Amino acid sequence: MTHSITLTKPDDWHLHFRDGAALQTVVPHTARQFSRAIVMPNLSPPVTNVDAALAYRHRILSALNAESRFDPLMTLYLTDDMDPNEINKAKASGHIPAAKLYPAGATTNSAHGVTNIKNVYGILERMQTMGMVLCVHGEVTATDIDIFDREAAFIDQVLSPLLQDFPKLKVVFEHITTTQAAQFVASGPAQLAATITPQHLLYNRNEIFRGGIRPHFYCLPILKREPHRLSLLNAAASGSGKFFLGTDSAPHTSERKETSCGCAGCYSGFHALELYATAFESVGKLHQLEGFASFFGADFYGLPRNKETITLLNQSLQIPDSFAYLEDELIPLASGETLNWSLQSPNPL
Ligand code: DOR
Ligand code: ZN
């Protein structure tokens, strides 16, 4: 029986922090577990330029103690009319390693996203030249495509041609959810990698409907069938440097989740590592967790691996029922359940 595992401190390569008072709740949760995080730009209004990204970064850091060494890595939200020079400015800032492609209408605050990939070919050309990473929400938005097929359709319609047209552009296929995506990435070029969330490793789509409709298991891309979950687990624990940790932790108030038209997003910012450890342990692959959580993302982004460590204890963690959040509550993924792993505390921030 393993009693503890010590890992190089991990990074979260896909995260939503929101803004304003929300930061007080969610930023310390993430900084406790991770050294760095790729921060998504889908605020309202979206983060479409360097000045906005750097101001947002400053607000994130203001939610932490002065001694914190947490480093928010910012992203720009691509729009049809973005000026390519913004890419050069982003690169020069030293704090913005990536830009995010949201197909318009794909998810939360994506209304300003890209309406046709060809509209941003000039930007992608510049990103390829400057060595900036493209993070992709990989779902088509056509309403006649079944919600469970949107990721697979995106591979054929958008991602395959894009990789051919930009053979040197580094692309992260974010939060993959299907066997097709896992296979496409595994067999794809070295410029292509993927992040995987804890919810897609732990749950299949039954979880959304177990005993009634359970909005805190609703995220986008939506949970898929069990064979897809198994493919993702296999990919994450394979030791391949093409798959790495990205929680897609996406806080919403319980009021906005538990309603007639609820928001997509699972909150895992508090307990992501314990969730990932649970998933890896379920297939006897805890020894592959460090590569997935702490090495492969940094290597892909061309950033140094972290030097600090964290320790997970083989001690039970009861996931809180909720956190106080924006005059309301934030319900974490798997709230109230017990996991076998808990992060040793206190950890250096
Ligand atoms: O479930 C999701 N929530 N998927 C996304 O792509 C966006 C995110 C959010 O921002 O709420
Ligand atoms: Zn996301």
Query: Quick one: overall form?
Result: globular
Order of strands across the biggest sheet?
Answer: 2-3-4-5-6-7-8-9
What is the count of DSSP helices, taking H or I runs of 4+ residues?
Answer: 11
Structural class: alpha/beta
- CATH level-1 class: Alpha Beta
List the uncertain runs.
Answer: none
The CATH topology comes to: TIM Barrel
Largest β sheet strand count, sense and barrel closure: 8 strands, parallel
Task: Count all strands and give the number.
Answer: 15
Strand fraction: 15-25%
Bound molecules: (4S)-2,6-dioxohexahydropyrimidine-4-carboxylic acid, zinc ion
CATH architecture: Alpha-Beta Barrel
Outline the secondary-structure elements.
Layout: E1 4-8, E2 12-15, H1 22-33, E3 36-39, H2 50-61, E4 71-77, H3 85-93, E5 98-101, H4 121-130, E6 133-136, H5 150-165, E7 171-173, H6 179-186, E8 192-196, H7 198-202, H8 226-236, E9 243-245, H9 254-257, H10 272-282, H11 289-301, E10 309-313, E11 317-318, E12 323-325, E13 328-330, E14 338-339, E15 342-343
Helix pairs in contact: 3-4, 6-8
Bound molecules: (4S)-2,6-dioxohexahydropyrimidine-4-carboxylic acid and zinc ion.
Zinc ion binds next to loops.
